[in-house]
Amino acid sequence: MDKRSATTIASVLSEALPYLQRLNNKTIVIKFGGNAMTDDALKNSFARDIVLLKQVGVNPVVVHGGGPQIGKLLEQIGKESKFIDGMRVTDSETMDVVEMVLGGLVNKSIVSLINHNGGQAVGLTGKDGSMIRAKKMKITRESPEAQAPEIIDLGHVGEVTTIDPSIVNALDEGNFIPVIAPIGVGEDAASYNINADLVAGKMASVLGAEKLLLLTNTPGILDKEENILTGLDGKKVSELIKDGTIAGGMLPKVNCALDAVHSGVKTSHIIDGRVEHAVLLELLTDEGVGTLISS
């Protein structure tokens, strides 16, 4: 190793020190999704990031999605995917596929990857120990010709009612890394498919997490000149929504991030999951790779 390389490495490690000190014994909830879940190099760098965080005294909790993988398997069995307002209509047959993909294939592949890189991960769905209680999500749609708002049935699409953190806390204390599939259980014992961002946000709130990280396929929140915005608070975010800077698919992520910080999470981060080691870069460097939102 030449002297310049050694100096660069020492500088990076030194820069990380104050962040590591602040995060020691703190919980961080990370929503794993997008390109980071489908690209082999990105998956491996994510797993290494999670293992390193646990090794240095941070408690990472991973919540994952799996929409593309669900869509692929539905296509293979000849079942069409139908979406309303960006949410997958989930009948009983589709819910079986969702449980198979999220709770089985995707969850166990993430667990295996973390374990392969030296961690001790344990895979869960929200049904384990009735950890995530859910109820059917109801959405309404206004139409000029209808006398009352139309209530749309999405099937087994749910929203979180309560989260029991005791399993996650026990795993953290036992030096394990929880990896959670966003499937909840209703009062009627039915399974519900829940948006992974929402589960991650609620989990962060219930655990009293230091940070919530949402991995996306964008650099973060961008202004109208495509520059990354960071250091935002609720007031600034409201202004950006009002003037149309934040719109479309970014809106639910931003609202989830805001809900978390208003519920006691110190900061939320919307970060670029297409960057290798995005988690470490956001948490342990001055620059970061996304948008930070605080209360």
CATH class: Alpha Beta
| Biggest sheet record | 7 strands, mixed
CATH architecture: 3-Layer(aba) Sandwich
**Number of distinct helices:** 9
Structural class: alpha/beta
Spell the H/E element sequence: HEHEHEEHEEEHEEEHEEEHHEHE
Work out the strand percent: 25-35%
Low-confidence stretches: none
The CATH H-level homologous superfamily: Acetylglutamate kinase-like
CATH topology: Carbamate kinase
Write out key terms for the chains shown.
single chain; 295 residues; alpha/beta; Carbamate kinase; seven-stranded mixed β-sheet; two-stranded antiparallel sheet; 9 helices; 41% helix
Explained architecture:
It is a single chain. This protein is of the alpha/beta class and 295 residues long. The protein has one domain (25-294): Acetylglutamate kinase-like (Carbamate kinase, 3-Layer(aba) Sandwich), CATH 3.40.1160.10. It is built from 9 helices and 15 strands. The chain has helices at 3-23, 40-55, 67-76, 92-116, 166-173, 196-207, 234-242, 250-262, 278-284, and strands spanning 27-32, 59-64, 83-84, 87-88, 121-125, 132-141, 150-163, 177-181, 183-185, 191-193, 211-216, 221-222, 228-229, 267-272, 290-294. The strands form 5 sheets. It has a 7-stranded mixed beta sheet, with helices on both faces. The protein has a two-stranded antiparallel sheet with strand order 3-4. The protein has a two-stranded antiparallel sheet with strand order 6-7. Strand 3 and strand 4 form a beta hairpin. Helix 2 packs across helix 4, helix 3 (67-76) packs across helix 4 (92-116) and helix 6 packs parallel to helix 8. The longest helix is centred in the middle third of the chain and has 25 residues, at 92-116. The chain is globular and about 70 Å long. The chain starts with a helix and ends with a strand. The mean pLDDT is 91.
